[in-house]
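To whoever is on call:

I kicked off a structure prediction for a single chain this morning and the downstream step that reads the tokens threw a length-mismatch warning. I double-checked the sequence; it's 153 residues and nothing unusual in it as far as I can see. Pasting both halves so you can look.
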Amino acid sequence: MKNPSKIIRSDNLTWPDLERKEYKTAGAGFRDISRYVLLGEREDETGLNMQTRYFEIGEGGYSSLERHRHPHTVVIVKGRGSMILGERVEQIELMDAVYVAPGTVHQFHADRGEPMGFLCVVDRYRDRPEIPKDAEELLEWIPDPEVRKKARI
């Protein structure tokens, strides 16, 4: 049996042998974000029960506001920004590690004058994220008006 172990080479937070993908291909509620799936998506990686991904948000961009049943971890490896994490807004800095527990509303923002990049480890097989349908549902998800001001849907 061939050993599937390997190294995916980086060139300054890009991976020339991998496809840089749009964050999502439809919908609104996000801006200027792309991703690489580093490990856990290809046929020779079926032994992995998780995916390791890299997301990059351009200056002023943000991810979708969402929640889901699966947990994930994030490590900031480029820049800094802020995020909605549950019922609060947190500043995030280079090399901060974030645990997003199941069911936690979250959204990442590159809002501190520079792009922000992060590694994200998530279950390979996972549920689809929920996104608030409208302002009324957003009010249910985020009751605090100060935190809600930060949200982009």
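Update from on-call: the warning came from a stale cache, not from the record. Cleared it. Sanity check on the structure: The mean pLDDT is 93.
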